[in-house]
Amino acid sequence: MFEFEQRKLPNATIVLVLGILSIITCCCYGILGLIIGIIALVLYKQDKRLYDANPSVYTNFSNLNTGRILAIIGLVLNILFLFYIIWAISFIGWETLQNPELLQEKLNELQ
Q1: Which residues of 35-44 are buried (b: 16+ CB within 10 A; e: fewer)?
Q2: Backbone angles phi, psi at 58, to 5 degrees
Q3: CB 65 within 8 A of CB 17
Q4: What span, in angstroms and rounded, lies between the C-alpha atoms of 48 and 36?
């Protein structure tokens, strides 16, 4: 009988790291984490095809799946933060956000 050498999925660790980074960078106006999360999901899809073709050969599918879950969480957080930034700019205004005195006045009006 032939024995297959157990191998690791090539992008599993990268997907895991990118999933974590997409959560960490959600406060970077939502753009950076969004890009990182999308890259993580694209790499996940490539490795998932390899795993589905021959699951007995690969050993670290759990890392790949965890990275996918973290990337999805990061995407959701980044999208929510991006919508919040867009709302803040449209409601308060860009000039107000750049001037602390105007921002304080606007916040006092809202209370």
Answers
A1: ebbbbbbebb
A2: -105, 145
A3: no
A4: 18
* Domain ranges for the chain: 12-110
Neighbours of 111 (CB within 10 A): 4
Mean of pLDDT values over 8-31:
94
Distance, CA of 58 to CA of 36 (rounded, Å): 25
Look at residue 93 and tell me whether its pLDDT is greater than 90: no
- Whether the CB-CB separation of 20 and 31 falls below 8 Å is answered with no
Q: What length is written for the chain?
A: 111
Inform me whether the pLDDT recorded for 1 exceeds 80: no
pTM to 2 decimal places: 0.85
Cβ-in-10-Å burial (0-12, 13-18, 19+) of 57 comes to: middle
Quick: pLDDT tens for 35-67: 999 999 999 999 999 999 999 899 999 999 999
- What phi, psi does 43 have (nearest 5°)? -65, -35
